Input
Amino acid sequence: MTQPTTVRRVPGPQPRLPEPLQTALTLATAGVPVLPLRRGKVPFGNCPACRNSGCGDRPNMKVPGPCRCPAPCHGWAAATTDPAVLTSPAWTAAWRRAVAVAYHPGGAGLTVVDLDDAAATTWARATLPATRTVETTRGEHWIYRGAMASRNAVRPGVDIKSAMAYARYLGPGTGTMTVLPDAVRALAVKEPSPVRPTTVAVPTRAGDGGCPHRTPAYLERGIAMAEQRITAASSTVHTTVYRTFLAVLSTHGRCGCLTDTHVTRLFTAAQAKGETARHCTDAWTNARTRLGL
Output
């Protein structure tokens, strides 16, 4: 009996991966989370299922949410190093439309100082430690090892891209990557808002205005303790400011001993913690309203 002939299939040519996807896979292998950029060099917009946080993602994508959308539709938060995701049908379709590759610097433990013009580049060369640099259309990217908070316009022509941000991949660059210096970290620290003169209602009463509780030193200690409480707040600053104002007013709000100088001291402490003059005024007004002053 003649044995059946085994036909050996010779695989045909495999479809060529889109060029941006090839670059993305190389970066992903090195541990760099990547995502495609569409026309305009911006991330792909939310798909219908994810629009208006319908998928349950976190507000404003400040951190990646629980969304498991198969499409690359969450900006920097969609960046991934998983080759199975990068080559999935939804992502491959996006790569075929992509005009560039972006990456999430913070996810790779990196920080990009984006120098947008010649003046910014000149400033960096005179101010910042040397590191790996990549030429851009108008300036340079300086890439450091270490992640930090991102912030735009830290000075003219300078943005910082690290956590919760994306940067366009423009090649490996030149030079040795160095550790993120304190000089760059300091650029992202927001200075306290300047204290603005604020007119607020100060409770008054008939009489000479002296504090009837104890001595003038009692009021001074109370204001000093309130300033210290606000300054020591490490979280929930809004709530701390309101409760502190409430405590001061509940003790001295009916005495007539509070002056504009005392209120300014409290507002100054609050604004040094990042509160705006409007927030301070609102907190003061709400505290007075609660106490019926």
About this structure: The beta strands are 34-38, 42-43, 100-103, 110-115, 132-135, 140-145, 151-155, 158-161, 167-168, 178-179. Residues 226 and 244 are 6 Å apart (CA to CA).
